Amino acid sequence: MLEVTRSTEAHDRAAQRGAADAKPTSRAPQRWLAALSPVLSVRLVSLLEVFTRAMVFPQSHARRERPMQGHIRKRSKGSWEYIIDIGPHPAQRCSACHRRFWVERRPKGECPKCGGRLTETEERRRQTKAGFATRKEAQVAMNKTLVAVEEHTYVAPTHLSLRNYLTNEWLPAIESTIRASTFRSYKQHVECHICPHIGSVQMQKLSGSAINALYAKLAVSGKRDAKTGLSALSIRHTHATLHRALKDAVRWERTTRNPADAADPPRVAGGGHEMKTWDARQLAAFLTATRSDRLGGLWHLLAMTGMRRGEALGLPWEDVDLEAGRISVRRALIPNGKVVVVSEPKTARGRRSIALDPETILVLREQAARQLSDQQRKGNEWRDTGLVFTKEDGEAWHPEVASRFFRQAVRRVALPTIRLHDLRHTHATLALRAGIHPKVVSERLGHATISITLDTYSHAIPAMQEEAAARIAELVFSCDTA
């Protein structure tokens, strides 16, 4: 024990001697600098001291980069609040009134207060939250917020209303990314069903119960006359629009959660629109009775290829090869109010090639002859759109007008009422019941996956199962076992 004590004391004395020896050495540069001019020597000594301090005390730099923190204080009314520093945030400063505006989603074009020019900058932002009954409650809430800031999941509170978000941010942002018809549906849901009822609610305070109350109100008085309610399917479509809008809000860091996840839209009996189809005899009777109609060729093409309405109306002659008996689907006509716009097919697999039967090729040749006669009769009034199905002056048909003419034709022929889109369902159902492989049917329809075909036309599967059972039994028991 004594030896250890002596050893420690010797070590301390050696350290003191080393420090004493090093002291004159550290002053040597200063004595050398004193030989220079007084002003230059003072400046160099100052720079040397700054450099030495930075090398000896690097922890001062570490203190400046410590994690963000906050503090708690008591308000005059007895409640508590916390204030945190959430770090640098994009901002804009007005060059005229010097007001600051935080950039949430899109920068402002000019100062909302004075109309001055705004300069983009980045400033540290502090966030305050009050209303806590005790200091402990404020401390717990502040700690949770600081963790969210560190994990980059924090969303600053905002008074943004649902109406302001949907109309000024969400709809303009998605308009160029979706089909015109889809955007029109979204806009209709927002303007007619969502904003009139819950548009004034702050988006970050929107709850699942408030959305359920909206759906209940729409079911009673959701139509324009406010006397009748929307169908369950229409309410589900509204729910899908609201859910997507709030999902984008979470992705854009406008809110931390999607309250539509907690909502319960009504169930749709039978899975939506009832699928009505014709059998082969009914379809043949309709096509024969409407062969000479101006849109008779359109009905025939839809029924024999399974094309969508917009795909057939947007089909140009350059995508029709009557010699090879094939058509290429590369675009579609989509209604956008009273006008039509050209769009891509509904899915990636919607761009496809479809084989034609001889009768359909003959119908298309008749359509070409009819169109040539219209062109000669109209002369300079003819509009060369290049489309297969046009009006007498060459203009494209509006899809809704084509659907109206189809309903009139069905009533005239006195067949069970179906929609124009049901010709597509009729084509798929007849093909599956004829034993055509579902993969081939899926390719003709342009479905994204074969599972969509099987799920949509499951009503045709039982007949295929029975036929498969009979064929397998015939194959097995017809074998000669002798």
What does this structure look like?
The protein is α+β, with helices and mostly antiparallel strands. The protein has four domains: 52 residues; 81 residues, no CATH class; 110 residues, DNA polymerase, domain 1; 132 residues, Intergrase catalytic core (hpI Integrase, Chain A, Orthogonal Bundle), CATH 1.10.443. The chain is built from 17 helices and nine strands. Strands 1, 2, 3 and 4 form a four-stranded antiparallel sheet that branches. A three-stranded antiparallel sheet has the order 5-6-9, with no helix packed on it. A two-stranded antiparallel ribbon has the order 7-8. Helix 6 packs across helix 7. The longest helix has 33 residues. The relative contact order is 0.06. One of its GO terms (molecular function) is DNA binding. Belongs to the 'phage' integrase family.
* SSE order, one letter for each helix or strand: HHHEEEEHHHHHHHHEEEEEHHHHHH
Average pLDDT value?
83
Helix content: 40-55%
The CATH topology name of the largest domain reads: hpI Integrase, Chain A
The N- to C-terminal Cα distance equals 106 Å
Strand content: 5-15%
User: What's the CATH H-level homologous superfamily of the largest domain?
Assistant: Intergrase catalytic core
CATH architectural designation of the largest domain: Orthogonal Bundle
What summary fits the major beta sheet?
A: 4 strands, antiparallel
Query: Please, how many helices?
Result: 17
User: Which runs of at least 5 residues are low in confidence (pLDDT < 50)?
Assistant: 1-8, 18-26, 53-67
Number of strands: 9
Count of domains: 4
CATH class of the largest domain: Mainly Alpha
